[in-house]
Amino acid sequence: MMTSRCGEPPRSGGRAPRYRASTRTATRPCNQPARCGGFTLVEALVALIIVALGMMAVHTQLNQYAVTSVYIREKTLASWIATNVLTELSVQGEWPEPGSEDDEIEYAGRQWHYTVEISTTQVENLRRADVSVSLAEDPERVIHTVSGLIEPPAPPGFLAPRWFGTPAEGG
Asked: Rounded to whole angstroms, how far apart are CA atoms 26 and 153?
C-alpha cells in the first residue's frame, strides 16, 4: 500500500496528492501542515543560534584552560627554583650574611631571575631567607616566593646523627 509524505494513505487512485493552486493559499498533501514540511526558517535559525552560543562557551573554556595551564607550569617551575636556591643556602659551608642578592639561572629551557633576601630573626642561631622567582624578561612580576629558616653550619668535627638502626643494635 502506498502512503503519502506524512504517513497517511493516498486519497485516490494510488497516486500521491498534489498541491492545488488557489487564489489564497496552496493546500498541503496531509492534514498536519506544520509537520509535513520539515523545519521552518525560524526554527533553523534558533537552532543555529543555540549551537553558536554553545560553541562560544566551549571556545572560552578551552582558552581559559590554556591560560591556566601556562600559569601553573610557570608557578611550578618557579617553586622548584626557589626551593633549590633555599636548599643550596642551607647546605653550603658558610652562614649567609643578612642582605639581598640577585641572580639569573637557566632552567627548563628558559631564563629565570631570582632574588634572595637574608634577614636576622629574634632567635640568635636562625636567619630568614626569602627567595622570589620571576622570569628574566619580566623581573618585576614575581611568580613565586619561598621563605625558610637557615641555621649556622655545623662546627668542624661534628658528626651527623645516624638516622637508621636502633640503639639496641648498636648503630
From this structure: 100
pLDDT digits (tens, 9 = 90+) for 94-119: 889 999 999 999 999 999 999 999 99
Q: Give the whole-angstrom CA distance, residue 123 versus residue 74.
A: 34
Q: How would you write 63-99 as a 3-class SS string?
A: HHHHHHHHHHHHHHHHHHHHHHHHHHHHHCCCCCCCE
CA-to-CA distance for 160 and 154, rounded, in angstroms?
Answer: 9
The CATH-assigned architecture of domain 68-150 is 2-Layer Sandwich (3.30)
**For residues 127 and 157, which has the higher predicted lDDT (pLDDT)?**
127
Give domain limits for the chain: 68-150
Distance CA 36, CA 6 (A): 6
pLDDT tens-place string over residues 26-36: 555 556 555 56
Per-chain mean pLDDT for the chain: 84
